[in-house]
Write a structure and sequence with these properties.
13 helices, alpha+beta, 17% strand, two-stranded antiparallel ribbon
Length: 396
């Protein structure tokens, strides 16, 4: 019986190839889309966590998980948290506040989202205060120099990038990014003056002052997106958080180790999209197998009649067709896996996207391909088993 199944598959190579392609397409959609969603999420979360600061401070109405926080937080909160605040001639009604006990350093960070190179996905650009950032993240320059604050007339726009960025990107001259290369950020040309490690948050960092000037000018003068707070000791994080919330009720304070959960909340929409992709993949694979096997049954009507005339039972006919569909589906799954792996390396080599090929999604893709093959062949198999032997033998 197995030789019969293999012979039937070999007899019509084009139709077999098309059926395999349908199953492979479904597997590729599930594996690569799921891998892309999980890979980008993991990479972003890891870089967000790769800092020494224990707390993040936001304006209360900002959606932290979205990642697209505009410059709407006054930078003066950084000085207030670290050094306290007192009434001034300009602001005589300010309630005096002492420095927040347990705070070692506070740094403001601006965040801007732009289209990625080549228009594939998006990337974030950060505006930073270099001196305070190094005290809250452990970031250091491994090649070149730090960025200047660009507070001069007609400044030269400067940027620093991490090592990974230089390995997978090219400058405007078409050559790999290096010190002196020119890249595009915020629709301007920036010169790379330094390469840093470790990979912390965004891979592209420019002076906060430059970001303020390019994105809003006077409307967002001296604003940032959030603050990072470094405590004198990690165990003081909860105490510092409660003090900041008490002194400044309009602020939202989260622990850095809570960031993965917040990003997971932001992936709810992506999970829905992923479920839609899986449903579409199931429909495509099932319909292609159904059409292929149905057409095959029509073409083999006489052969099936001969088998039934020789005494083949209905279960035998059904099982023979299902085994053929299973073989085609298994080959399609294997092809889908190979293309998915090749696609992963191609996408990661040509873009800054990361793809995680997790075992559970590989198993889901394999199971989906096999089940779709069996389900798609079921109706044609039952139809073949119910053919009248005399009519089938005389079929033209």
């Amino acid at each position: 019986m197995n030789s019969l199944v293999v012979a039937n598959v070999k007899q019509r190579p084009l139709r077999t190839a098309l059926s395999m392609a349908g199953v492979a397409l479904g597997v590729i959609l599930v594996v690569l889309v799921a891998g892309l969603v999980r890979g980008v999420s993991r990479d972003t979360t890891q870089r967000q966590m790769n800092v020494d600061s224990e707390l993040r401070v936001y304006i209360d109405n900002v959606n932290i998980a979205s990642g697209a926080n505009p410059l709407q937080m006054p930078r003066r909160y950084a000085d207030a948290i670290k050094n306290g605040v007192q009434p001034t001639p300009e602001y005589p009604d300010i309630t005096p506040r002492p420095p927040v006990a347990g705070v070692k350093e506070v740094t403001p960070v601006g965040l801007w989202v732009q289209n990625s190179v080549g228009g594939i996905g998006f990337e974030t650009v950060e505006g930073i205060d270099w001196e305070s950032l190094t005290k809250t993240t452990g970031l250091h320059i491994i090649e070149g120099r730090p960025i200047n604050d660009s507070r001069q007339p007609e400044p030269e726009f400067e940027v620093i990038v991490d090592r990974y960025y230089t390995e997978v990107n090219k400058g405007l001259d078409g050559k790999p990014v290096r010190i002196g290369s020119t890249i595009t950020a915020l629709n301007r040309e920036f010169t790379v003056v330094g390469i840093y490690e470790p990979s912390v948050m965004s891979r592209i960092k420019i002076p906060l002052y430059t970001m303020q000037e390019l994105t809003g000018g006077a409307d967002i003068a001296d604003n940032c997106s959030f603050l990072m707070v470094k405590c004198e000791r990690p165990e003081l994080a909860d105490e510092v958080r409660e003090t900041i919330k008490k002194y400044y009720p309009g602020l939202k304070v989260i622990r850095t180790d809570e960031i993965p959960a917040l990003y997971s909340q932001g992936l709810v929409g992506l999970d829905i999209f992923l479920n839609v992709v899986i449903a579409v993949s199931v429909i495509i694979s099932t319909m292609i197998i159904l059409l292929a096997m149905y057409t095959t049954i029509i073409e083999r009507t006489r052969e099936i009649g001969i088998l039934k005339g020789l005494g083949a039972s209905k279960p035998f006919i059904v099982w023979a067709i299902e085994k053929e569909a299973t073989l085609i589906s298994a080959l399609g799954v294997a092809v889908g896996f190979l293309i998915s792996v090749a696609g992963k390396y191609f996408i990661e080599a040509s873009t800054r996207l990361r793809i995680d090929l997790e075992w559970r999604w590989l198993l889901l893709g394999a199971g989906m391909g096999l089940v779709c093959g069996l389900a798609g062949a079921l109706y044609p198999a039952i139809r073949a088993a119910n053919l009248d032997p005399v009519e089938a033998i005389s079929y033209e």
